[in-house]
């Protein structure tokens, strides 16, 4: 998979994309992540990429020209499955959407900033708008990191144990069951006996029951979706 990210602040991605699973995924060749600074397509001497909104109002808006030129240049060499704009009013990112995006070959992600982007970009270029939650961030960069991580970890071969992703919360509209590791007894806080029994069938049943119970308590709406 190739993921191209358009941003005003490519430096923000250096830490998250150079560590842990995302680092290994790139090193193994499972994903190529490219960062493009939108200012490189700005026409003015000072590389301006924002201006006051028509009609007045507070804040600045990202200009249409540099974004359009950037997308057009990248599209001339890459056929994108989705051109994604991260926006508070997009469809809510969930595990099912991450699963669908993970089977694509080429994704382009646009990070907004300030009061957002010129609407003409959304109308003429964007194929999908995604929100990471019902709140507002200072820019789309952190949302792009969340989306990229959620998608990349699902690519076959990225995780050492590929079954791990299948047992994540939300994969089957259930939250994950409780997890334990050594020692089995810490300060009198003991691991449930069933997990030490070695009975794989009983352990699987216990984990499913715990997932259902935890989902009932914490996110009952997921069970309605499951039905």
Explain how this protein is built.
There is one protein chain. This protein has 227 residues and is α/β, with parallel strands linked by helices. 33% of the residues lie in helices and 18% in strands. The chain has eight helices and nine strands. Helix 7 (200-218) packs across helix 8 (220-226). It is elongated, with a radius of gyration of 22 Å.
Shape: elongated
What percentage of the residues does DSSP assign to strands (E)? 15-25%
Low-confidence segments, ≥5 residues, pLDDT <50? none
Distance between the termini: 33 Å
CATH hierarchy class name of the largest domain: Alpha Beta
Count of discrete structural domains = 2
Radius of gyration: 22 Å
Please tally the helical runs, counting DSSP H or I stretches of 4 or more residues. Answer: 8
Strand order of the largest sheet: 2-1-6-5-7
Corresponding CATH architecture of the largest domain: 3-Layer(aba) Sandwich
Q: What's the oligomerization state?
A: single chain
Percent in helix: 25-40%
Alpha-beta content class: alpha/beta
Order of helices and strands: EHHEEEHEHEHEHEEHH
Stated plainly, the CATH topology of the largest domain is called Alpha/beta knot
Biggest pleated sheet: 5 strands, parallel
Rounded average pLDDT:
92
The strand count comes to: 9
Task: Give a short overview.
The protein has helices at 14-17, 20-27, 64-75, 95-102, 119-124, 141-152, 200-218, 220-226; strands at residues 2-7, 32-37, 50-51, 61-62, 82-92, 106-111, 128-131, 185-186, 189-190. The protein has 227 residues and is α/β, with parallel strands linked by helices. The mean pLDDT is 92.
């Amino acid at each position: 998979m190739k993921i191209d990210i358009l941003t005003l602040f490519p430096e923000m991605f250096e830490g998250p994309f150079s560590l842990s699973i995302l680092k290994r995924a790139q090193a193994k060749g499972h994903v190529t992540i490219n960062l493009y600074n939108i200012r490189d397509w700005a026409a003015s001497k000072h590389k301006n990429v924002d201006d006051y909104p028509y009609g007045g109002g507070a804040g600045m808006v990202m200009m249409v020209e540099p974004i359009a030129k950037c997308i057009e240049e990248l599209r001339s060499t890459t056929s994108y499955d989705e051109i994604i704009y991260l926006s508070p009013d997009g469809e809510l990112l969930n595990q099912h959407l991450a699963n669908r995006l993970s089977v694509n070959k080429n994704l382009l992600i646009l990070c907004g900033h300030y009061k957002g982007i010129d609407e003409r970009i959304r109308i003429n270029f964007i194929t999908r708008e995604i929100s990471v939650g019902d709140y507002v961030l200072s820019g789309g960069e952190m949302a792009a990191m969340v989306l990229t991580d959620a998608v990349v970890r699902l690519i076959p071969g990225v995780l050492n144990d590929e079954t791990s992703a299948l047992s994540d919360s939300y994969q089957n509209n259930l939250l994950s069951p409780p997890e334990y590791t050594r020692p089995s007894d810490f300060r009198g806080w003991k691991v449930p006996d069933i997990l030490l029994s070695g009975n794989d069938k009983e352990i699987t049943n216990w984990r499913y029951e715990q997932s259902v119970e935890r989902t009932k308590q914490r996110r009952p709406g997921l069970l309605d979706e499951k039905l």
